[in-house]
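Data deposition worksheet. Section B asks for the primary sequence of the deposited chain exactly as it was used as input, without tags or linkers unless they were present during the calculation. Section C holds the resulting structure in token form. Section D is free text for depositor observations; keep each observation to a single sentence. Incomplete worksheets are returned to the depositor.
Section A, Depositor: J.P.
Section B:
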Amino acid sequence: MDVLIVPCPNCGRLNRLPKHRTDDVPICASCRTRLFGRPVDLDAATFDRVVGGVTLPLVIDFWADWCAPCHTMAPELAAVAQELAGHVVFAKVNTEADTELAEHFQIRSIPTLVLLEKGAEVRRISGALTRQQILEWIAHSGAAEA
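Section C:
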């Protein structure tokens, strides 16, 4: 049986999930929050554990609270997270709160989306995107293939 490792968007715990159960509504074993459908907040303390443990492709949104385009894109990204639940994990990194992560990824403009597979960067794109543009960007990478 194939098993996925996915982070809880509420408490950050890594959960083991049988691959055939991704279309269910899986919940965190610790806090009982739905595992899919909203981005996980990452910071320097949780980043390595989550990125190193997740078995699905991971899209990270690098953003800042003062950034209007970031706020414009946030509901678009949340919609894509719902749509691709069970196929892609979504996370957010606040570049103002976690400058170390922003520097590590050499983030020069926000919002920036970075796609990781098995912990390695596959692609990135900067600028506010619509739901459809995000879906096309992910589809072009092949990451959302079930």
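Section D:
The mean pLDDT is 89.
The CA atoms of residues 27 and 34 lie 4 Å apart.
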